[in-house]
Amino acid sequence: MPFMLWLVDHPPYPSYWNESMRTAVGNALKAHFDQVCTSPKTKYGSTNFSWANSAGGRQSDHLVLHFFRRNRDGLLYMWGQRAGLDRSGATLWMGAKGMVSELYLEMMEGDANYAKLVANAAFHEAMHNKLDAHPSYDSFDVHKIKGGGLSQEFGISASTRLTSADINAMAPALTRTIPQF
Ligand SMILES: [Zn+2]
Question: What is residue 1's predicted lDDT score, i.e. its pLDDT?
């Protein structure tokens, strides 16, 4: 069974957000996770992704990432969160609702390698989702991974690399059962 990435995009969609863009983002994100799956520290040998048009469209709790144009369109904002929504993405444990990872497309608009940048930001949020946002993993800090690439706090671009340190941190965490919204 492959590790499953459920990607959920929400209206209103920007004009550039079409099927080929969604496929490009999904493929770039899958490429990162496929690299993680080469590690002996995970039982998964590969990953698949699916764009679901609603949170109810997903079929596993492996990983769910939500895509919005603006942070104000998002679930976290709707639920009253205001702090920490000023970057390209945010991940927060929302208790009974589960883990919520969001990407804010507007923050990345205009980049020459847009799909890759969105995928890189999405992988960063995925790291928070599995590695430090849940209260059980409070003592860990993704941003402090030595030799980190996509885990670093600042300056993630379309050309930022997934490093072996990122892979070593992420691989054993893929099997964690963290309820996803
Ligand atoms: Zn971060």
Answer: 85
Taking 80 as the threshold, does the pLDDT of residue 30 lie above it?
yes
CATH of the domain at 10: 3.40.390
* Distance between Cα 138 and ligand 1 center (Å): 14
Question: Has residue 64 been placed in a domain?
Answer: yes
Question: Is residue 179 in a domain?
Answer: no
Rounded to 10 degrees, the C-alpha dihedral 78/6/133/124 comes to -100
Residue 65 pLDDT class (50, 70, 90 cuts): very high
Reading across the β-sheet that carries 99-104, which strands appear in turn? Answer: 47-52, 3-9, 63-68, 99-104, 89-93
Task: Give 31 Cα–ligand 1 centroid separation in angstroms.
Answer: 20
Separation of CA 28 and ligand 1 centre (Å): 19
> In terms of residue numbers, what domain contains 155?
3-173
pLDDT of residue 135: 97
Alpha carbon of 27 to ligand 1 centroid (Å): 22
